[in-house]
Amino acid sequence: MLDTHAWVWWVSAPDRLSSVAREAIDRAERVGICTISCWEVTMLAIRGRLQLALETELWVRRGLAHPRTVELPLTSEVAVRAALLRSQGLESDPADEIIYATARANGSLLVTRDAALREFDPRATVW
User: Fold this and answer.
1) Which of 10, 32, 23, 16 is CA-nearest to residue 110?
2) What is the pLDDT of residue 91?
3) Which residue(s) pair with 126 in the sheet?
4) What are the backbone dihedrals phi and psi of residue 100, each rounded to the nearest 5 degrees, phi first?
5) What's residue 73's pLDDT?
């Protein structure tokens, strides 16, 4: 599963991924994208913090269209797991907590450069 920045880079700038991240993505049978990443990409584009070559809606559709890509929805299980992360010591923004909880609920490694997530659970993350 990809964190939002890893998804953006995988689609638009693959050389920004580390070699370990690229290898993990290449080996994966399926590449999970959390639904909240679609929201996050859109918000970053609206705020001018992310420049996309396409209109945001089209970029998201194409970013999810890769044959190995699977969109992973926000479920009640993920929502509860994400909310409990703070009591377990993870201090992060809500989108990252949802992304991490989605990866764990699906038994997936999370490809992320986020130091807080990698430090919180080094065995469940890769960069």
Assistant:
1) 32
2) 83
3) 111
4) -60, -45
5) 95
82: which residues sit within 8 A by CB, 6+ positions away?
A: 94, 97, 98, 100, 101
Domain annotation for the chain: domains and CATH numbers: 4-126 (3.40.50.1010)
Alpha-carbon span 50 to 105, nearest angstrom? 28
**Structure tokens given for 63:** 């970013």
Please check whether residue 92 is in contact with residue 116, taking contact to mean a CB–CB distance below 8 angstroms.
yes
Residues 95, 4 contacting (CB under 8 angstroms): yes
Distance CA 37, CA 50 (A): 13
The DSSP secondary structure of 49-71, one letter per residue, reads S---SS-HHHHHHHHH-STTEEE
In the numeric block, which tokens belong to residue 13? 């700038």
Q: Are strands 69-72 and 110-111 parallel, antiparallel or unpaired?
A: unpaired
pTM, full prediction? 0.93
